[in-house]
Structure formats: C-alpha cells, structure tokens
Amino acid sequence: MKKYGLVGFPLTHSFSQKYFQQKFIDEGLQDCVFNNYQIEHIDEVKTMLEDRELQGFCITIPHKKNILPYLHFATEAVKQMQACNCVKIREGKLYGHNTDVAGFEHSFTPHLKPQHTKALILGGSGGAAAAVMFVLNKLNIAFKKVSRVKEADNFTYKELDKDILKMYTVIINATPLGTYPETDTAPDIPYEYLTTDHYLFDLVYNPPLTRFLSQGKAKGAAIQNGYPMLTIQAEENWKIWNE
Q: Regarding the domain with residue range 2-98, which homologous superfamily does it belong to in the CATH classification?
C-alpha cells in the first residue's frame, strides 16, 4: 500500500484529503491511501515516519517552517523561503519542496494588469506568505507587509489610507480571516478606497467568496480566491511523490 498524507494542526477542514481520495477513485488507484496526520507538536512526526509505506506528505499550518530540521535535502526555493509544504520520502530520506510557489504563481498571474506593480501582503508571517513573497520578487512586483504591530519596512493596518491604496493596487490576504466558519470576518483595510484598478487575491478558499473578496468585487476590483492555488500545488505534490 502506498500511503500519503497531510501534516498540520488543526485539520478540521482538509482540502488535501478530499482531493486525493477523489483522485484515487477517478484514476482507479486502489493501492493508494491519503491520511490526515493532526500533529500539534512537530516532534510527533517521528512516529508518523516509522510507517515504511509512507511515500510522502504535504504540510500546512503551523508546520511549514517547523519541518525544516527534519529534512535531509531541500530545494533552493525551500532554503530561500525557509518554508516547505511538500515532502517526498525515499529510502528513509526526506526531500523538501515548496509547491505553494507554483500554485500561487499560476493562479495569480492570469489577472495581472499593467497597473499592478505594487502589492500589499496582509499578514505575511506564515509559510504560504513566504511563497507569495518569493513569486512577487520573481515578477518584480514591489511589496509591503501589513500587520497589527509596527515593524521595520511594513505598514500597520491603521496606516493604510487612500494614498497608500492608490499606489498599492494588488492586495493579498495571507491571513486566515474569513475562513469558514468565521465567514463574517475580514482584514481591517479601508475598502472604500478600492477601485477597478485593484486586484484582490485571497489565500482562503472556503468560502469561495470571502468578505474580503466580496467587498473588492463590489468596487469593481479583480478578485481571485485560493482554490486554484490549492489544486495546482496538489497536482505538483503528486508529480513530486511519483517522479
């Protein structure tokens, strides 16, 4: 039996398990299973790795950075971002990859317009945000992180005003705000200053239209949720596990 899985905590709403279970059915892969490994502390991964049938696993909050010390090999992207969301296991060795990069880049770029030259990243401390920053650098899109606490070279939410939003026409939500079941929440930005020049990208995929995106849509902004990013990175994971 070939086993795959998802490592994270908590895992109340697992996209990956449902996706791969359906994939195995659609492709007639009767020798494959996908399990959720709800691991609160990363050192619990040692027990999981004792299963010799485990071929690989993907990683979500809060362990995309925590897994790094357990890797035997890592791609240059993982080393640069210090975040890993995909591990391939071969002969007891762990090979770290980051497929969030491909997932974000291929779902983000179709809506880009010439005016989208500067971006705000709401949040920015998690592993997925590291992939966002990696891609923005690759695309030569300048960016600033936005957080509640003032740090070097960032904005606070209270600092955001009409002039800042006029300059930063791309706004990426890298926080969990708006995720089901807390669907009435959204990042605290001045939505009244959004225009048709703006592009809002939400890493949240459930619900498909978050409050963050709906307020952008109401102002005529381009919007995209996180679902395509998830499906792209899932397929990238599958390629890595089986190449």
A: Leucine Dehydrogenase, chain A, domain 1 (3.40.50.10860)
15-26 and 227-242 helices, crossing angle to 10°: 60
Identify the active-site residue in 3, 23, 64, 239: 64
Residue 126 has pLDDT above 80, yes or no: no
| Pairing status of strand 118-122 against strand 86-90 | unpaired
The structure tokens listed for 125 are: 């401390």
**What is the C-alpha separation between 61 and 78, in angstroms, rounded?**
16
Q: 64 catalytic, yes or no?
A: yes
In CATH, what number does 102-228 get?
Answer: 3.40.50.720
Q: Give the residue extent of every domain in the chain.
A: 2-98, 102-228
For the cut 70, the answer to whether the pLDDT of residue 13 exceeds it is no
Integer CA distances (angstroms), 239 to 59, 85, 175, 205, in order: 16, 14, 28, 23
Whether 90 has a pLDDT exceeding 80, the answer reads yes
Give the chain's end-to-end CA distance (angstroms, integer): 17
